[in-house]
Amino acid sequence: MRKRIILRGPVLSRSGYGEQSRFALRSLRKHEDRFDIYVINTQWGGTGWAPQDNEERRYVDFLIQKTFHHVQNKGTFDMSLQITIPNEWESLAPVNVGYTAGIESTKIAPQWIEKCNFMDRIIVISNHAKKSMVETAYDMHDPQTNKPAGRASVTTPVHFVGYPAKDLKKEKVDLDLETDFNFLTVSQWGPRKNIQNTVAWFVEKFKDNPDVGLIVKGFVKNNSSMDKLRAEAMLKSVVDPAAKCKVYLIHGDMSDEEMVGLYSHKKVKALISLSHAEGWGLPIYEASYTGLPVITTNWGGQCDFLNFPVKQRKKGSKTKTVNKMKPFFCEVDYTIGPIQPEAVWEGVLVADSMWTYAEKDSYHKCLEDVYKNYDNHKEVAKKLKTLVKKEYAPDKQYDAFANAVLPPGEAKEEPVVSFD
Question: Would 59 be classed as within a structural domain?
Fold first, then answer.
């Protein structure tokens, strides 16, 4: 029989975890012959909510009401799928699956290990997140004698499933731009995202060039009018007023189709990310399958979709070939160092974990190369788009996720009744 599965996560949130939750829901929905789906929607920070006027939103509302009545009637569940950071995982059903972005840095918090080993299965969004999770270990001590008592590490199976490359129609976005050649960065303003250096170093590079611009699509905490004023003030604090290049701010909620329109705009030439670390890097990913050239570091979650194997002649052989990973983007050099004190998050980002620090000179070289040799970078971006679309085709990823939640054969297929 189908498994009654309760999905708990920010399904309606306009956030990374919201996108993650909707992907999970779409995956389960594609396999409703195996899953009887219920939903508990949670909040994620102060982020806005998804649209209320499309079919998926109506389906989510239906599931929320269905869940309410099921719980009111003291109904139970066979499985839970909990989409959040591991600190918040708990026992909701006989079988519990945790789905998390993982960790952006090199090490998970000790609290995570206990919670991870409490779950039956874990799914993460990148090989980087999986590596950090399974390689973290802490020395244990006997609380009475303080003598060594072994090492604590994650023993629950951890699966990696990447996001699907969406096939969306682009919606025209009207941009009031004075410059024809513009770089784009998409991010929340916070310690991990490194927006201050992204903007300041850009302005330093193009300070004497009035023909180049940088579009900052982002926010500080949410999409409110007060937040826009705060974002404007923060941008002005790092932009040299004497610089001739332009810096633009786009603030507020945009639909997926509008974001495709932004990435595809004829005056938007490349995406920049100097983030210290990414669990996956959703804006980088969206740019990659839209065909927009990317400038970033080759470390973190984005490595899964920015590098692909290509055949090369084996050294010393005239006929044999070998596969070698090739970056399909402009690489910014980096160093690895401890996370900043202001980035430490108790129970999540531990003080002795590490991530990347982009090098300014290398960033400047990438900016110049993309600006001066744009056609070459655009060709590389087109190849990357094709590779990503094939490797992360939606149906392929939906199947992979559903199988990670519930391996085939563990549920008997049944006909599905439409929610309509």
Answer: yes
Find all residues with CB under 8 Å of 85, minimum gap 6, and list them.
100, 101, 112, 348
User: Which domain covers residue 21, as residue numbers?
Assistant: 3-164+396-405
Length of the chain: 420
194: left (phi over 0), alpha (psi -120 to 50) or beta: left
| Residue 23 shares a structural domain with residue 61 | yes
**Cβ neighbours for 357, distance < 8 A, ≥ 6 positions apart:** 276, 334, 335, 336, 337
Sign of CA dihedral 76, 27, 53, 282: positive
> Residue 66: which of 13, 6, 18 has the closest Cα?
6
405 sits in the region (left: phi over 0; alpha: psi -120 to 50; else beta) called alpha
Pair of tokens at residue 21: 């939750």
Q: Is residue 8 part of a domain?
A: yes
Whether 415 maps to a domain, the answer reads no
Say if 332 falls within a structural domain.
Answer: yes
Here the CATH number for the domain that contains residue 225 is: 3.40.50.2000
What is this structure's pTM?
Answer: 0.90
Distance of alpha carbon 219 from alpha carbon 224, whole angstroms: 9
Total number of domains constituting the chain: 2
Choose among 75, 85, 72: nearest CA to 8. Answer: 85
Q: What is the pairing mode between strands 268-272 and 95-100?
A: unpaired
For residues 271-281, b (16+ Cβ closer than 10 Å) or e, as one string?
bbbbbbbbbbb
Judge whether 250 and 261 are in contact, CB under 8 Å.
Answer: no
User: How would you classify the pairing of strands 181-188 and 158-160?
Assistant: unpaired
The tens-digit pLDDT sequence of the chain (420 residues) is 899 999 999 999 888 899 999 999 999 999 999 999 999 999 876 565 666 678 999 999 999 999 999 999 999 999 999 999 999 999 999 999 999 998 999 999 999 999 999 999 999 999 999 999 999 999 887 777 777 778 999 999 999 999 999 988 899 999 999 999 999 999 988 899 999 999 999 999 999 999 999 999 998 888 789 999 999 999 999 999 999 999 999 998 888 899 999 999 999 999 999 999 999 999 999 999 999 999 999 999 999 999 999 887 777 776 777 889 999 999 999 999 999 999 999 989 999 999 999 999 999 999 999 999 999 999 999 999 999 999 999 999 999 999 999 988 776 555 555 555
Question: How many helices and strands (H and E) does the chain possess?
Answer: 12, 18
Phi, psi of 13 (to 5 degrees): -85, 140
